[in-house]
């Protein structure tokens, strides 16, 4: 299972009611699943890359000129995203992540 969670955790480790790693663990355990692992997919740098990539297309109101944006900024955005991808190892805790990859197994009685 993967979840969407591009927001930083609050009240760690007691943030149970959003799709944080703590909330996912709580939901799994409360519903009879054993948590095999919960891994963040990316850290702050990948979140920044994603947000920069979608910022201007969301702000541009005229759909006719979006192609111009992509024509001009595709290569610079690719280079920036590559740099941010390579820097992502610097974020050790990955508390702000794109999403979580969860592997649970059902507890059988």
Structure description:
The protein is α+β, with helices and mostly antiparallel strands and 109 residues long. The protein folds into 2 domains: 1-43 and 93-109; 45-90, no CATH class. Helix content is 44%, strand content 18%. The chain is built from 3 helices and 3 strands, in the order E-H-E-H-H-E. The protein has helices spanning 21-30, 44-59, 66-87, and strands spanning 2-4, 33-41, 99-106. Helix 2 runs antiparallel to helix 3.
Count all strands and give the number.
3
Strand count, sense and barrel status of the largest sheet are: 3 strands, antiparallel
Structural class: alpha+beta
Mean pLDDT: 86
Secondary-structure element string? EHEHHE
Total helices: the number is 3
* Rg, Å, rounded: 18 Å
- Helicity range: 40-55%
How much of the polypeptide forms β-strand, as a percent range?
A: 15-25%
How many domains comprise the coordinates?
A: 2
Strand order of the largest sheet: 1-3-2
Q: Which shape, going by the Cα principal axes?
A: elongated
**Which regions are unreliable across 5 or more consecutive residues at pLDDT < 50?**
none
Kindly report how far apart the N and C termini lie.
23 Å
Keywords:
109 residues; alpha+beta; 3 helices; 44% helix
Topology, element by element:
Elements (H helix, E strand, L loop, with lengths): L1 E3 L16 H10 L2 E9 L2 H16 L6 H22 L11 E8 L3
Antiparallel strand pairs: 1-3, 2-3
């Amino acid at each position: 299972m993967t979840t969407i969670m591009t927001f930083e955790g609050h009240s760690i480790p007691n943030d149970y009611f959003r799709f944080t790693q703590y909330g996912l663990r709580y939901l799994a355990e409360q519903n009879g699943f054993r948590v095999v692992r919960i891994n963040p997919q990316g850290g702050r740098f990948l979140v920044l890359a994603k947000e920069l990539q979608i910022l201007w297309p969301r702000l541009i109101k005229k759909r006719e000129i979006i192609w111009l944006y992509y024509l001009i900024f595709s290569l610079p955005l690719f280079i920036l995203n590559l740099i941010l991808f390579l820097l992502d190892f610097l974020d050790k805790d990955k508390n702000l992540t794109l999403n979580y990859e969860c592997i649970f197994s059902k507890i059988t009685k």
